Amino acid sequence: MKILFTLLLSTFTIGVMVAQDLITFRNGTQVSGSILELTPTLIKFKKVADGPTYSMNLSDVSSITYKNGTVETLNPSPIVSTPANTNKTNTKLDPIEDELLIPTKRYGGPRVGLTFISAGTTRTRIADAFNRSDITPFVSQFGWQFETRIFTLENGAAGLIEFIPLIGGIEQGLFLPSASGIIGFRGANGVEFGVGPSVSLAGFGLVLAAGASFKVGKITFPINIAFSPNIKKILPDQQIYDWNTGTYQTIPGETTNSGFRLSLLVGFNSRKG
What we know:
There is one protein chain. The chain is mainly beta. It is built from three helices and 19 strands. The chain folds into two domains: 2-77 and 92-101, SH3 type barrels (Roll); 106-271, Porin (Beta Barrel). It has helices at residues 2-18, 95-101, 121-130; strands at residues 21-25, 30-38, 42-46, 53-57, 61-65, 71-73, 106-117, 138-152, 158-168, 176-186, 191-200, 203-216, 219-228, 232-234, 238-242, 247-251, 255-257, 261-267, 269-271.
């Protein structure tokens, strides 16, 4: 008897744990999840407990079957007659299903931040270019981020391609352009990382980026740290003619360091398409 009671209790517990609300859309699409909020115009729900929050128009919802078995009818599905000999070859997802599987595509938004430029040829080039000796290692950054999400998993994780052009040093009367292209991945929890090429007054280099994004409604607020490692260059040997001996003396080329760059950028993104 005790064993039977334990089995029944376990079965009931598992059933409660896996029970979910069932949302039926007017086009026939059904989605299982946990409904978070119903407003006069929107339904907000999660497909998995730690996944992203989806918002859909309530007018697109036909009915809701709650986890306790209660059925609520909202907007009856239209009756669509289909010819018997219709041969469906179009596999494109309808707008509702496409929105669920690919909730985001292209984003963009402003970026502001601060960059630390360590000692090296980059700071030397900046000082020489502007004929300045009072340049500080910290420079402001203003720019824009263009983001394309090349794929989005069902749990909300996404693969990213980003392009970030920036203008730095405005507060010091400088014009320091730079641009980075990053290939990255953002997890369902908003944590992201990426790597890609960059170009600036230091030349071509590599940039490593990491950060986190926080979504409020349809706006995403990212916070990112970008690190461009030091670029070491060895200058070619120089041949200098010695008039005393009548021969050429070889002077080994010097080793130069560009200096690393460390940036902190914040901003916001909105969907562009």
